[in-house]
Amino acid sequence: MATRKNSITGYPMFKQSSIERTEQDLKYAKKVNQFDKHQAIHLAEQSINSNGASFEIQRYSAYVADLIGIQGELAYKKGEWDIAEQKLLSTLPYNPASANRLAIMYRKEKRFKDEIELLTLAIKTWHESIFNAYHGTTDEFEKRLAKAKSNFEKYKNKDMSQGFKPHFLQYDKKFMQKLLDIRDSKC
After folding, report:
1. Out of 57-61, 67-71, 96-100, 147-151, least confident range
2. If you write DSSP's letter for every residue of 11-73 in order, what string do you get?
3. Residues 178, 60: contact at Cβ < 8 Å?
4. How far apart are CA 79 and CA 81, in angstroms?
5. pLDDT single digits (tens) 2-48
6. CA gyration radius for the chain?
7. 3-state DSSP assignment of residue 68
8. Dihedrals φ, ψ of 5, to 5°?
9. What does pTM read for this prediction?
10. Helix H or strand E segment including 75
11. pLDDT in tens, 110-167
12. Which class for 84: exposed (0-12), middle (13-18), buried (19 or more C-beta within 10 A)?
């Protein structure tokens, strides 16, 4: 069976059933994507250790970035890769898993140098992210980065990299600082 392509962009598309599932995920996420900052502060303060604040940091991260991430995934599945790239890049400090989808896109587009830069950025961003509340690792990205570097060396004469400029989603810095202060006071 031939790969379906977006008639406007020329990028591959997923099966319609996969697109519809992601559309349903997006609808559901829009319904449940709510966050009460006052309640989050209260819950973090009432926690007997730092886990309460860490959990609220994680919930806030999902509140800020999940809808955009799902929109990026949907755009990817519909073959709207330029839209997908912009949306997924914006979520890196909140969810480094976005880098996986982007790395696949870059590799398929023969943007080998961009894949290296993306993975390097994802690793650095996640290590520095205040949303990395449970000190998640980037081991998988580091493995993927080694492969990306190898691919670049093999195919550098075919590289189609064009660079990218991430614009990360904004968040309430004062609110986050309150949660961080609560977490740090309970360590």
Report:
1. 96-100
2. -B---HHHHHHHHHHHHHHHHH----HHHHHHHHHHSSSTHHHHHHHHHHHHHHHHHHHHHHH
3. no
4. 6
5. 689 999 999 999 999 999 999 999 999 999 999 999 999 999 999 99
6. 19
7. helix
8. -125, 145
9. 0.92
10. helix 51-77
11. 999 999 999 999 999 999 999 998 888 899 999 999 999 999 999 999 999 999 999 9
12. buried
Amino acid sitting at position 103: A
Q: Which of 56, 58, 38 is nearest to 47 (CA)?
A: 56
Beta bridge partners of 5: 12
Q: Determine the residue type at 86.
A: Q
Specify the pLDDT at position 159: 97
> CA torsion angle for 47, 136, 122, 70 (degrees, to 10)?
-60
Task: Tell me the DSSP string of 121-169.
Answer: HHHHHHHH-TT-TT----HHHHHHHHHHHHHHHHHGGG---------PP
Cβ contacts of 107 within 8 Å, gap of 6 or more: 115, 148, 151
Residue 2's pLDDT is 67
**Which tokens hold the place of 169?**
């989603």
- Phi then psi for residue 83, to 5 deg, are -65, -45
